């Protein structure tokens, strides 16, 4: 009953993507492709097509996962509009709101003087919004259990027209087959998002998400995708020239940068028990913005 409200038919998906036209293709991996689409009501969506062989083979598990995906609702998560299952094509489609400003990685590693440089207040609001989205996932609510995202990165933080951050792919591990979930983690490991204890234990917790969130704070502050030890020591000693993006041309709050640097270092502590919870992080961010 709940799922029927979210069900699209194949004809709607084909019409939205102009029959999966190459010109609508936004990106592709080994197991899925994402297309831009326009629905009948003229709203713009991103449609992810997933090969059935990449989904959980146990139907009850898959349906349970879909149920969870459709019940996630937060202003800092990409909204799932619906899904479509085509046995004929052997594909499952997930229909999401489209985020017009791309993902956060597009705003990192910019050449000196090139666009689009995010200003300081936009960076702060992206950090705040991302924190709120992750906190929502971790919380237990009436119709949703606590969820660990497992794969937070700048590629998974999408930016909408108003520059609000939207976390993508939340809960996807609940419908993907295990081997697909693991293959997506290789990239995270290479980029430094995976907490050291995951590499030891193979287990995800809220604290592994907190680690990845800390990495993202440093990436947003520095404007760089790859973090270096000098950035970390810069954050530790408030040496702003070492960890604050030079493209800001000095237009940032030193006290806020120092505070965020400390939060990022706490989040990326080697010891999971010494990392703060998302709730604590949000409280710190709020306390700070009130006092500054």
TrEMBL record:
It is a single-pass type I membrane protein. GO terms for molecular function: ATP binding; protein kinase activity. InterPro entries: Kinase-like_dom_sf, LRR_Rcpt-Like_S/T_Kinase, Prot_kinase_dom, Ser-Thr/Tyr_kinase_cat_dom. It holds the Pfam family PK_Tyr_Ser-Thr. Residues 20-289 form the Protein kinase domain. Its main location: membrane. It is found in: Membrane. SUPFAM superfamilies: Protein kinase-like (PK-like). GO terms for cellular component: membrane. It comes from the Eukaryota. Transmembrane segments: none annotated. This is Protein kinase domain-containing protein. The lineage of its organism: Eukaryota, Viridiplantae, Streptophyta, Embryophyta, Tracheophyta.
